[in-house]
Amino acid sequence: MASTNTNGRNRAGRRDGAPRDGRREQRAREREAYTRQVGERLAAEIDRACAQCQRIDGAPASVAKEATEGEQPRLPEVRVLDADACTAILENGRGRAQFCDLTVLDFGSYTNPAGGFDKGFMGFEQSLCEHSFLYNVLSQQRDWYGENRRRNINCELYRDRALVVPAVRFTRDRLHAYADVVVLAAPNARRARSEYNMSDEQLADAMRERIRFALTVADNLGHEKLVLGAPGCDAGGWDASVVAEMLREELASGEHVATTVIFAVRRERFNQNHERLAHAFETFPAKNETSYENVRAREEAAQAQAHKDDDDDDWRAYLK
After folding, report:
1. Cα–Cα distances in Å, from 117 out to 28, 93, 261?
2. N or C: which end of the chain has fewer CB within 10 A?
3. Which among 320, 292, 262, 258 is positioned nearest to 82, based on CA atoms?
């Protein structure tokens, strides 16, 4: 069910056997300067976001309307983009804080603000911080992260706890848009399995509960547009096909507020997170009964046959 695959990365985030990445230290220096600059330029907005930041402990009451008997469930439009979250936010968000109508689900670090953003690490959460003042706010919530470390690790399954940072300004190339950001953590399948012998069933139950919690928090914000990545599918060790199917099931229930759900997941050489999510939602709301592995095997076989045919054609041309 849950994979312990870490895409070849060790706990420090580097690929096994790889030399220390000098670019990471460069990113850390650049981010330090960026955080300082944003802190000065957008001080009033950061103070407002810190003052209004909510701490959610336990699932809030659902505000979504359930379909009555005979009524069709309200299903969202689902898109899987080969883009980072900032691109999705700028294309779908609004440019004034008071008209913010978009929620970002940031399945990020549970124990450190922005998961090593200040140390140059890369990931969905760090990408959010690179184009906003999110880190400036999260770095002022260290007591919340400390409480998570001391009391809420829960065998690396973590708990239904979240920060809601309102109207975060995202900027790129002189364009900007606002989004409410929900910060929470997916269960760490890799550590829960290796350190606590958690079963696939226990892990799956914890992830389904966390997905439902995240969407319920988003429902309570009332926004009809939702952006997220591939929860837990990098350092957390989750198989993207497994997580995508859980997300598909929950979104297909028609019980949530969002009418547009955007997965912002870049294609990468070292994983198939984008491809697996796109495959799972290809037949939404129905389940895609063909496994991603079978589709990929057929594509690879077709490519191999095409190369063979090309080679045969080359030999025939030579013999002429």
Report:
1. 7, 24, 26
2. C
3. 262
CA-to-CA distance for 42 and 207, rounded, in angstroms?
36
The arithmetic mean of pLDDT across residues 91-113, rounded, is: 97
First to last CA, the chain: 55
Q: Which helix (H) or strand (E) holds 250?
A: helix 240-252
Contact 111, 156 (CB under 8 A): no
pLDDT surpasses 60 at 131? yes
Mean pLDDT value of segment 137-157: 97
HSE-up (13 A, CA, CB side) for residue 151: 8
| Mean pLDDT score of the chain | 90
Residue 283 — φ and ψ, nearest 5°? -110, 20
Q: DSSP string spanning 206-234?
A: HHHHHHHHHHHHHHHHT-SEEEE--TT-S
Q: Angle 115-120-123 (CA atoms, 0-180°, nearest 5)?
A: 55
- The pair of structure tokens assigned to 146 is 């400390």
* pLDDT number for residue 67: 60
pTM: 0.87
CA distance 89 to 223: 13
Q: Say if residue 285 is preceded by a cis peptide, omega within 30 of 0.
A: yes
Per-residue CA distances from 6 to 151, 203, 204 (Å): 26, 16, 18
168 pLDDT higher than 70: yes
Q: Per DSSP, what are the bridge partners of residue 168?
A: 179
